[in-house]
Amino acid sequence: MPFHEQVDMHTERSEVDSMHTLLAIPPNFYSIPFGLVGLARGWRLASNFYGLPVWIGNALFLLAAVIFLLFLVLLIIKLLIAPKMVLADLTNSAVGPFFSLLPIIGMLLAVGLAPYALSGARVLFLVFFVATVLIGGWYTGQWIIAALDADKFGPGYFLPTVAGGILGADSAASFGLTGLAWISFGLGIISWLMLSPIILNRLYLRPNFPAALIPTLAIVIVPSVIAGNAYFTLTGNRVDPVAYILAGYTVLMALVQLRLLTLYLKLPFSPGLWSFTFSYAATAAYALRWLHLQHFAGATLLGYIVLAAITLFIGGILLRSLIALGQGTFLPRAGNS
User: Fold this and answer.
1) Domains of the chain
2) Per the confidence metrics, is the pTM higher than 0.90?
3) How far is CA 261 from CA 81, 157, 257, 266, 307, in A?
4) Where exactly are the transmembrane stretches of this chain (predicted)?
5) Alpha-carbon span 103 to 185, nearest angstrom
6) Residue 281: which H helix or E strand, with range?
7) pLDDT tens-digit readout, 243-256
């Protein structure tokens, strides 16, 4: 065979392998833009509170949007050429719930766009909000009829309805859609009350969590943190008994995260570590809100420290991910998703 034909065949094979690799990306990779949009929201808060440059938050929103659109395009391609792979992702008992992150991220990005294109951002929010509610309803029904693996039922199951509902409430309130926001808040809070005993029972009483899913333990802090943030948005930053109750449970879950450090520090680097990013970014944003509301001596300095810490943490994971991507060890191999 002539050399140029060998080169052409090798090139075609490489392109096919690359496409298979991209299509094999599992839903937990959606944690990447989720974490970046969480950091962007934190920087936007800091810009409002401390007068920091707006462009930093905007740049993070833009980066999250680019990665989000990449995953969205890949999903559309996957639906067209390999719908069974999409169904397998949806019903995967370990990482399936992460599929719900796509419409949730879309809602948060719409809020990020609002200061610059309010009408268009509101339409995008409503589209992604409807998608979030639909997928949350689908998962709730799926969990009723499916034979679930109890040992893989963990904090990731908070994402479709709890995170979707509460973040939908926060986003709707940002657009002045108060009634819709309270409806969505109710959806998220009641789902939290239903799922929390099941998830904690599994964590307390069942065998140790699979190593690959240990990063998702960071998600246990998410419900109270995002509920606290959403409650402030809904009430105009009112500090009342409900706000204190949510803060109290958040403190408990933060202490749990400290105890779990002995597990976390043993983890090798993997894309799964992105599960930490939104959890801690949302926690940092919640801390910034409380620090801004309390106005005690040193609160501003502490706010800067919180912002710097979460930026360095997520920036470090991003840098390590880029290095792994360059080394060809970040993306999954086709057939091993």
Assistant:
1) 19-327 (1.50.10.150)
2) yes
3) 42, 22, 6, 9, 20
4) 21-43, 55-77, 98-118, 124-145, 181-200, 212-232, 244-265, 272-289, 301-323
5) 17
6) helix 275-294
7) 999 999 999 999 99
